[in-house]
Amino acid sequence: MIKAMIVINNQGKPRLSKFYNYTPLEQQQKLIRSIYSVLCLRPENVSNFIEGSSFLGPDSRLVYKLFATLYFIFVFDSSENELAMFDLIQVYVEILEKCFSNVCELDLVLNCSKMHTILDEMILGGQVVETNSEKVMQAVDEIAKMEKITAATKFISKSTSLFWG
Amino acid sequence: MSGNGGPSLMDSLFQRTLEDLIKGIRLHLPGAGQSSFISKSLDEIRREIKSTDLQTKSTAVQKLTYLHSLHGVDMSWAAFHAVELTSSPLFIYKKTGYLAASLSFRPSTDVLLLLTNQLRKDLSSTNQHEVSLALECLSVICTPDLARDLTPDIFTLLTCGKMFIRKKSIACLLMIFGQYPDAVRVCFKRLVENLESSDNAQTLAATVGVFCELASKEPRSYLPLAPEFYRILVESRNNWVLIKVLKIFMHLAKLEPRLAKKVVEPICDHMKRSEAKSLVFECVRTIVSSFYEYEFAVKLAVAKIREFLLDSDLNLRYLGLQGLLLVAPSHLWAVLENKEVVIKSLSDVDQNIKLEALRLVMSMVSDNNVVEICRVLIGYALKSDPEFCNEILRSMLSTCSRNVYEIIIDFDWYVSLLGEMARIPHCQNGEEIEYQLIDIGMRVKDVRPELVRVGRDLLIDPALLGNPFIHRILSAAAWVSGEYVQFSRKPFEIMEALLQPRTNLLPPSIRSVYIHSMFKVLSFCLHSFLLPEKGVNTSLSNFDDIEPGFTYSESEQEFTEPDHATRSSTFQKSDTFMLESIDNVLTQLITSLTPLADNHDVEIQERVRNVLGLAQLAQQEISCHHDLKEKMVDKVNLKTSIIINIINDALLEDFGPIPFSAQERVPIPDGLVLEENLSKLDSICADVRLPKSESFCLIKPVLLPTDGDSNSNQQNEEESGTAVESTSLLAEHRKRHGLFYLPSNDKKIASSSFPPANDPNQRDNDVEDLVKLTEESLVLKRKPNLSRPRPVVVKLDEGDRHPITVKKTDENEDLISGAVRDVLLGTEASLHSNISSSRRKGKSHSKVNMENSETGNSSKRRSKHRDHGKNVEDRDENSEKGKKKSVGRHKARRRADGDGVVVVQKPIIPDFLL
Q: Which residues, if any, are the signal sequence (chain A) (predicted)?
């Protein structure tokens, strides 16, 4: 299964972290730090897989891909295929690209919950449930619409809402 | 902002949004400014979260969730507020609440139980996204209680018409099973149904994913579903599904060898057909790790691996090497075919690729090329970064020591290689080298002279003492030099080396090994001096350096005097000089050890006093009898001689490797009650001091330095303080004993028949070398013309190095698989009737797994086999025959069971596979 999905920038700041098994917060931060310490030492143009048993626990692998300033990372075990995970990063980034045209780090910083929404449509309980970006987009749009409608109702009834900012 | 109490209207009106918070954090530089901003925001959040206005509360939770997941702020205190939000009818609040819950709740969160009802409500919601929120949250925070309470709801969702929900509930099921194995009894049937319905690729992918996880933990229970997986393997065109099915077959193949025949061909078809590299690689992995007996399949897989290896994409090259590593144990030819690529990869920029290549190179090692490969690898080790260097050394050590040094023929070479390794600057494998040096010493008698030579070279080099990583190696060197001192050409030289001032850099545990080795060397020297006629046969033959001027001017002719007779005659003549040198050594020993007699470390103190005791006694008597040097007879009657005789007898006893279970195999003597309480003895023994020092020097095994001493890594504070001082001492020491510090020349004199492993002159043409030598020694597989036969290596019958630990399976997994077995076999009868009556008109194949049991009737069984025949038309006759045979067997078994009576005594997995 997939153990975690993490996005960190090239200075080691986490932008998204989702663990599919219960992991205490301190442990999460430790893992993110150790992953970063491995990734930041890797030169460009090397392979994207890392055998992670030494720092992520037994039977752990890691696939990462660097887009501009962001590392997208999947941690998984031997029940997943490395190249398939690599494709999954691609799909995820593709969807982000569709959501925020010309996606940049700031978009992700400001829209953390949207990243979670997209991820949750693709992976549930460590299992991949959807890989078709069209379908994910459709679900994400539906959710966004529902969020807006309810918020809009609020907006009318209560002028303090800042949602439309 | 308002004061201390609850949130005011102002708070709600001018509440910071999440975006404001993020922008605020970005404005402050990381460090104090940022953290004070965060703690200020936290105070705001604490006020806002108490608001009765859901909007305010929601924003507060949102901000808190953000701070929690990306800035590590604790939010366990806000759990209740998250639960509160999930019950809101408005989607946005519900979503915020669920996100907070799934990111922050832990199994111990007490409000978790409050969430059960809300989850249940949302799981049955008509809004599919609400269901999806609940499922997602449940999959992350699932506890046994939640799983138990919500199993019925998930069960309902498994047949939900909306695929969107069904696939998610299937994925969620895995977590439910993990927490509450009894859920298997309820849901397994529907899970299997989802496996059979091929109408939706996504639900199928989720289902197969769940089975893959389950099978990876305990494959046996899922063997009965093999026909179903087979159908998916043949029919599905979804790569995700196929990858998972292949993984399932990888697990099942270990249990059921007959599976291989059936699945190999479809897997090969996928391998040939598929464009997707992920699927191709999975096929390759499956074939080479589980179905490697099928030559044609392996050939195809190796061809694909080669494509990967030659690809420009580094990821594919890395995976190609991994694939090759999987083939290596069963088909070494595949590695040899690609050896150029492998060896070139050894100097790749990519650490991953280098490591894989190293493993592959090691897989090529055999007894006739190990010398050359190790030589080249040492060259690589010297060139590469510390991490990779140690990786190289580690794999060399483990490969060479495999199966009690199976591939080593020339142990002299290997021992000197170990010595070379210690001199590699980055070497951090001291512990392993230490173990092997001692292990070889005990196992291989013939190598001991060389071992002592290597040990001497290491001990004598003061530079090595400064590197804490190789202290363990020095400890081994000291031990072998002491234990096998009779093979030493120059025992006095070893004594000098053991006494050199820089030894104060060593940790106490290793120093005590040094000191005990001095004891052995000393007693050996004294013995040879005092009782030569006795020692002639055993030890004196190697003791030819006790000659005129032996200490400071070594003449080469000493080594070229093999004649025993002349040697003993020169020995007689040189007695005067020996006396002088013995005297010298004793003085030196006493001078350098006396300060240590009050050392804080008990081990050191104990041993120093032993050595000193012996040395002082010997010195006294020898100087007293200075005049008696002509009369050898008198020496025998000295007190020292008597003691030395006893000690030497004790020391001469050879001890070999000891198996881990040796202690257990010692029979308990009759009349010894081990459980008896010994506390009564305390009063008796209180004033009796155990004769420690005597027993210590007579019983050797106490000394075995492999027993990892707890304080072995602790440097003695006091002693390391003198490190600066020691450099000047060293200079002085060098000045005095200048001749001892010529290791490079020394090595040539003690000419060995093999080249030093890391000779800088031989290191340049590595790649060509390695390619060439693998060509010569591997492809041709010619037997090396050995100059000498492989020495005897002592082996133990069992558990040579580490006791095998029995792997304990997870209790939950047992429960799950038990439940699965019950479902598949125990309740088969009811299942069967249910299914055959309620569904399946045209889809005969989907009945397969349900019918597969002892209780199914044979006509249906046969029809099942026919169905399978349709699915896969081109099958060889063998399997056809096999099938018939199995049908016959089923019949027979059924008859034996007695007609009609449905009794399943034990969960035998019936064979459905042929």
A: none
